[in-house]
């Protein structure tokens, strides 16, 4: 009997969306590999989007380095690459659609931290993140000038967002209590990640988002924005993140190096691709990069089937 196909929206459109704050490191490769394999397993498209709205952190030439690294590893995207910095006018139209859900805020990060400490001193439960106390939601506080733009979250009842992650299972978050009204345009004038990513995923028709688990906490906010904008909800799969020796997420900030600098293309199979596959739970042997992908696609499909069975 033939194996039934994995459940999937049709047509499948996935994406890899790196930030050009430096070259791809091994942790980035894991996320790219997972999203690429998932698109291939489902016979879908794999898009690449450069998420460069955080302009202060962009590194000149990093976007081209990222694209070259993907190609050296045998990952070819569909269609044209997009850059978020070329889409600011589009984000303005999305902002206008949110209307009264958006308000100006004059609070600094330090002031929000101080407010949270005062609430805790008065008996409020502490939170791991920085929860906005709503200081400016009914108008700018006296003496304040507008800095950022925030999105209102429902107060009564609280806004609890739940979704089914294809790796982690059922996930839920009370964004009212755990996040509060969140920033969609920053005090420095740059668009916040949450708005830009939701706008672009909707515009590109993304059906499946495969990315690192460090972004799992952002997903409920994105689902809330999608609902306000009338956008369809993609499926989500958050893979584990690679950690540095310190135990922190491997990143440019923790000293992660490019996985392919000074490495001949023929050596990338053993130095980068096979280790990334093993991290994802794919134990493969391959003769070259083309052979790797021929073996990795069915291995990823088998891994997904096993995870489906475990969650059944």
Automatic annotation (TrEMBL):
Residue positions binding L-glutamate: 15-19, 51, 193, 211
Binding site for Zn(2+): 105, 107, 132, 136
Zinc keyword on record: yes
EC number annotated for this UniProt entry: 6.1.1.-
Glutamyl/glutaminyl-tRNA synthetase class Ib catalytic domain location: 15-284
UniProt keywords, alphabetically: Aminoacyl-tRNA synthetase, ATP-binding, Ligase, Metal-binding, Nucleotide-binding, Protein biosynthesis, Zinc
Domain of life: Bacteria
Motif 'HIGH' region boundaries: 18-28
UniProt remark on cofactor binding: Binds 1 zinc ion per subunit.
Positions that bind ATP: 252
Any one GO CC term of the record: cytosol
Residue ranges of the motif 'KMSKS' region: 249-253
Keyword presence, Aminoacyl-tRNA synthetase: yes
GO biological process: glutamyl-tRNA aminoacylation; tRNA modification
Annotated SUPFAM superfamilies: Nucleotidylyl transferase (SSF52374)
GO molecular function, one term: ATP binding
Chain ranges passing through the membrane: none
Cofactor(s) this protein requires: Zn(2+)
Gene3D superfamilies according to UniProt: HUPs
HAMAP family, alphabetized: Glu_Q_tRNA_synth
Function: Catalyzes the tRNA-independent activation of glutamate in presence of ATP and the subsequent transfer of glutamate onto a tRNA(Asp). Glutamate is transferred on the 2-amino-5-(4,5-dihydroxy-2-cyclopenten-1-yl) moiety of the queuosine in the wobble position of the QUC anticodon.
Family to which the UniProt record says this protein belongs: Belongs to the class-I aminoacyl-tRNA synthetase family. GluQ subfamily.
Protein name: Glutamyl-Q tRNA(Asp) synthetase
Species per Swiss-Prot/TrEMBL record: Pseudoduganella violacea
Lineage of the organism: Bacteria, Pseudomonadati, Pseudomonadota, Betaproteobacteria, Burkholderiales
